[in-house]
Structures are given as C-alpha cells and as structure tokens.
C-alpha cells in the first residue's frame, strides 16, 4: 500500500474500489448465467422489460438488473482511476498500458453482455464473454497492484535520489516462457469449462475423482469431462513447476515465490471446487466458488507473468503533480 499522502493514496484507493467493483460485476454475471437470468429483462437493452427502473417481479429480474446497473459504476470508477493514474505515473509505461487494456476489456465485456441480451447467443459466445470478464478483472487487478508498487518505488527513489526499478532482473530467463505460456493455457482450460457450463453439460458429469459417465451420455458429456479434467491435471503440474523454480530464485526474487505460491494454492482449490461441482451436480454455491477460485488463479498467473518482464524505472525525483493542490504538503 502506498505510504505517501495526497493523490498517490487517492489513486490507489480508486484502484482498490475498481477491483472490488469488477469482482461484484463478474460475480453477479456468473450468477446471472448459472440461474438463466440473462433474459429476465427481456431482449432489451438499456431498458428492462420496457422500463428504466423495472418492477422486480422475480429474483431473476433482480439479478439481471443488478448486473446492468453495476457495469456503468465500474466503468466510471475505472475511467477516473485510469485518467488519474496515467497522469500521475506517466513516466512508468505499465500504468498507461494497463489503463488502456483495462478499459478495453471492461467495455468489451459490457458489449458482449449487451449482445447476449439482444440476441440469444450460442454457448461459444457465452464462453468468450466469461473469458473476457476474467481478462477485465486481471487487468484491473494488475493496474492496482502496479500503482501500489510504483508509489512505493517513487518514495524510495525520492529518498535515495536515484531511479529504482519496479522489478529486479530475472535470474533465469527461461522462467519467463513458463510464466507467459501458462496464461494462454489456462485461458483454453477456462474456455472449455465455460463452454461446458453454458451448454448445461456440467450437470451430466459423474464420478469422483475419475469420470464414470456412460459413453452414451448426451452432448458428449464423457468426452468433455475427460478433456476438462485432463486440462486441469496438466495445469496443476505446470503450476508446481513454476512454484519449484520460483523457490530456486527465492533469494533474488521473492515476488515470484509469492505469486507462484498463490497460483499453486488456487490450483489446488480449483481441483477441490471442481469435485464439489460434480458432487452437487453444479449447484449455484459450488459454481460461484469454482469460478471465484478460477478468477483468483488467473489473476495470480497474470501477475506472475508480468513480474518476469524486464525492469523499468521512472524519474528519481519528479516535479510536483498537477493533481496536488497548494497547501497539501504532499510529495509527488
């Protein structure tokens, strides 16, 4: 957390609020999809059943309407965070780039959601919507984390009078490939899982821990079950390798050990939450637990990958920020 006063803490708090709001939007969206509430407002957007403020005749309508009103709140929070952050930390390339990526994915998520409401979309498109929602969360999370890290580095740079990097050099460059390739891999695994959920195939899954559905189960349930569990098994091995190699670099890069520990923890939880899904035949609580764990796993792997990038530095001592008013006594 930034220790400086003034606009540094303001931008950081806005980033925290944007991250929390992204979680709220995604969680309601996951519940929206699992409870088939997407069309509780009809095939209309922006209105809900022909009304700006609808009559909440059912809990499905409440879920869908709550999802709709939370999206513009997130958009407004993120825009303010991105504008202020990009100005204050304009000497650091991470913040303007992550701000642009965050806004892009949040707007794309809203656009795909609107399309899904106006037209009944196939499972493949709904799965894409799920993937974009996780990209939106991860980019907002990385934006907030980097704001905190840069603010801390700025403080240290002001004290030392020389520029300090936000990341240390990577002792083993091959680790960067392992970290970055984990992103596309888990995205494929998540897409398969989202496709299974949106096609209502998950409720047909049987067998703990090994699938034991009948080969004649509808919608190729046995094949999809084996595919999804196999992808999850390979992911577990992959993350274990990331963790073990991070342990070897723990003295030079404790941040990599921290991120890989989170990734390993989320991967283990993902396996157990997946078994819970099968045992409860995709109950809503089990589904929300599973997608929440997957969200945390994806975010931790994205952070791990970003930490393998080459170091970047800002100016050691910058001029007073334009955001800092007279009499605040805070440093830029």
From TrEMBL:
GO terms for biological process: heme A biosynthetic process. Pathway: Porphyrin-containing compound metabolism. The keyword Metal-binding applies. It comes from the Bacteria. It is found in: Membrane. GO terms for cellular component: membrane. The keyword ATP-binding does not apply. Keywords: Cell membrane, Disulfide bond, Heme biosynthesis, Iron, Membrane, Metal-binding, Oxidoreductase, Transmembrane, Transmembrane helix. Pfam families: COX15-CtaA. InterPro entries: COX15/CtaA_fam, COX15/CtaA_HemeA_synthase. It is a multi-pass membrane protein. One of its GO terms (molecular function) is metal ion binding. Its main location: membrane. This is COX15/CtaA family protein. It comes from Alicyclobacillus acidoterrestris (strain ATCC 49025 / DSM 3922 / CIP 106132 / NCIMB 13137 / GD3B). The lineage of its organism: Bacteria, Bacillati, Bacillota, Bacilli, Bacillales.
